[in-house]
Amino acid sequence: MPAELAAVLVAKAVRTFGYGALGVVLPVHLSALGLGAPAIGVAVTLVLAGSAALTWAVRRPAERWGARAGLGGLAGLAVVAGVLLLSAADPWVVVAGAVLGNVAVGTGETGPFLALEQVVIARAVPAARRTAALGVYNLLGYGAGALGAAAVALVDTPEPLFAAFLAGAVVQLLAYRFVPAGRPPSPGPRARAAGPLIRRLAALFALDAFAGGFVLQSLVAYFLHARFGLEPTALGLTFFGAQILTAASLLLAAPLSARFGLLPTMVVSHLASNVLLVAIAVAPTAAAAVALLLGRHLLSQIDVPTRQAYVMALVPDAEREAAAAGTTLARTVAQAVTPALTGWAMQALGLGAPFVLGGGLKIAYDLLLYASFRGVPVREG
Fold first, then answer.
1. What would the pLDDT profile of 273-332 be if each residue is shown by its tens digit?
2. In this structure, are residues 279 and 246 in contact, taking their beta carbons and an 8 Å threshold?
3. Rounded to whole angstroms, how far apart are CA atoms 157 and 76?
4. pLDDT at residue 190 above 70?
5. Is the pLDDT of residue 39 over 90?
6. Would the pTM of this model clear 0.85, i.e. be above it?
7. Structural domains of the chain ordered from first start
8. I need a labelling partner for 363 at 20 to 30 A (CA). Which of 34, 88, 155, 377 fits?
9. What is the C-alpha separation between 118 and 55, in angstroms, rounded?
């Protein structure tokens, strides 16, 4: 295994362990510090807006000095974030720490780490192994995230989880030393022709992410807590199971995409999962809601490594930083808008409204993506 691939996998695992824990405990912790549903929605929006800003800011340094410089800088910010999370008693200082640390508030990671790490993987392995490598990358992330969510049940206060996040940031700093230093290939005039394609894809990904912002893990945790009275221990176990099923689904991505193609695999699996998502809104009991949530997670992330491999396959090597950063930025910005609306929707329309809004928009995304890109060829390199 190439050293840079191993480094990225280690960094992904330790980072997402912290994300899995904080994604469950952070909204409950903020609630305990005095924030209500609308304020928690705003807090989640701020975290996502910070992630979008970091994704935008890191692209140019990565294109100029390479992924190692960008990833090292991001890990340094995560160290500062861990210190703030451990020391803060004011809820908005906690939010500031989450912003600096690019804390993921959903079951899947978006943001600057993902944008740069998928490019490192795409260059480290041949095209025929790219979907499988990205599947392992995401599998580790979801598996570690599941362990992080389960760890919530083992502690009485959030401080040990904040300390684990800080330790993970330090490990990332060390791991990124094995990523090659130096500049990526320079794009030529023919490579620049990929720009319109990237923008089209980014617009569709933005629609999907906007819809996903209605049902981020932190907000789903709040829904289960507010409607059915699930406490942090039960929530931690629920999301542990959800992320285990998500991790298992990633194993299906490579064989399914090899059999049916990247685009059909992305669309069909994602579409089926969104039907289950809408059904959560009308679940009569906690058991039914959790069952639908678990079913959704069994299907919803098959598209993740296929989507990442699809983006890398659509553009020349020299344009991969731009493609990864551009599509990730579009997803993160769009997702940042929705949580504040979710808090309002929960109060004005009902706790289940975000599931209907998010699921319906995601179904529209699936249909538009297939209609727009079914005739676009992919590259082999």
1. 999 999 988 889 989 999 999 999 888 778 888 888 888 888 887 788 778 888 888 887
2. no
3. 25
4. no
5. no
6. no
7. 3-373 (1.20.1250.20)
8. 377
9. 13
Is the pLDDT at 140 greater than 70, yes or no?
A: yes
Cα 326 from Cα 328, distance rounded (Å): 6
Q: Would you mind telling me the total number of residues written for the chain in this entry?
A: 381
The pLDDT, as a whole number, for residue 35 is 82
Rounded Cα gap, residues 265 and 343, in angstroms: 33
Pick from 338, 305, 277: which is nearest to 49 by CA? 338
82-131 pLDDT, tens digit each: 999 988 888 899 999 999 988 866 556 778 898 899 889 988 888 778 88
